[in-house]
Amino acid sequence: MRYLFITFLLFSSLHADRYLDEAEAYFQNEEYEKAYPFYLRSANENQKSEAAYKLGWMCEHGKATDLETETAVYWYKKAAEWELNNSNKKKVYETVYQNLDPLGDEESTDTLVQLANGKFGLRAYYPNYAIVSYTDQVPKGETKYEEGGVNPDGVSYIHTEVKYQISLRADYITNWFGFVQMWTGAYTQTSYWQIFIDSAPFRETNYKPEAFVTIPFFHKADIIGLKGMTLGYKHNSNGQPVDDNATRIRPDGPKDGSRSRSWNRLYAKAYFQWGRFFSEVTAWYRLPEDFATNDNPDLVDYIGQGEVEVGYIHKKLLTRLTLRPSFTQGHISGELEMSYPVPISDNVFFYLQAFSGFDFHGNFGGYGQSLIDYDQKVNQVGFGLSISR
After folding, report:
1. Buried (b) or exposed (e) across 207-245, using 16+ Cβ within 10 A?
2. 22, 151, 265, 299: which has the fewest Cβ within 10 Å?
3. Which distant-in-sequence residues (6+ apart) come within 8 Å of 225 by Cβ?
4. CATH architecture of 2-98
5. How far apart are CA 242 and CA 252, in angstroms?
6. Where in the chain is the domain with CATH 1.25.40?
7. CA 157 – CA 294 distance, rounded (Å)
8. pLDDT per residue over 258-306, tens digit each?
9. What is the DSSP letter of 125?
10. Per CATH, domain 115-386 is 1.10.290.10
């Protein structure tokens, strides 16, 4: 039953007060009229986020009180505010997105919560990981280390490197315009480190700051599994030198010898959940740039016009597949991610990542794994550890 799922997600902390204990006992028995005043005292006197969340849930669903959307939003915001001040951050997601469907067993539900925290909670955004990565093509980067480059030490890039990602976010919850929104600033950095060659240079780092607003639908679109929508802006660049005087390697391609890559986009994203399956569908629009200073005019032809992520949860195992189709070039790039907790901790994960793709002529390889080689077909596999999903 749904109330058992909610109780599992928002179990009382070790420091719960007696009002909260009383309220939880009544809530579990669906005696909402008796639970309500105890939650109210716990929230008003002790600022318990668990109590505030339950008050918001009861107001939203008309349990022990009339349907009061504005009051529900008030308590959800209080729950988020108080929870963000606690040392235990795990339940940040539930204070805003309490509309996930239960998955039937504790391990699957806990994996869903970890995924939710990574996607919508404070701190982690995309997975934070470090892997040893192998690509079938020698990657690009600083010219002197590329194949055929002039290097006085005779050092060149190799197929194997360390790839790591840091991804963080900060959220602000409000109910402007009469409905709930969460405004977010996020930053993701993905680095490619040739640690296995002399001097261990970083061949490429991609910087991805973004800002977006997420609107949860609170079951209003459950008939199609739609849980929420995001509208945002994202910048992506690699901070490499620009050579304005160089000629282009093809009419719409990057400049010969220039390592600078960048683009800006607006995007819209929809979130879906159907039991253990979840999906994100994203479409983006590249903001126009002056052709003379555009580092990579044809980047979207390779990266694609959007992406579709499909995931599946089975107990502690989380599997995700992200596909980016290019309708102009007739190919699809894809990235597979799998994560599973290490034996000594449920918050550190074995992390497997594979990247590839195919075109409609039967050729394999994906485009856009990193900015510097966005126009180079790559097949890649890596394994390591992550600290978020």
Report:
1. bbebebebebbbeeeeeebbbbbbebebebbbebeeeee
2. 151
3. 272, 273, 274
4. Alpha Horseshoe (1.25)
5. 16
6. 2-98
7. 27
8. 899 999 999 999 999 898 999 999 999 999 999 989 999 999 999 999 9
9. -
10. no
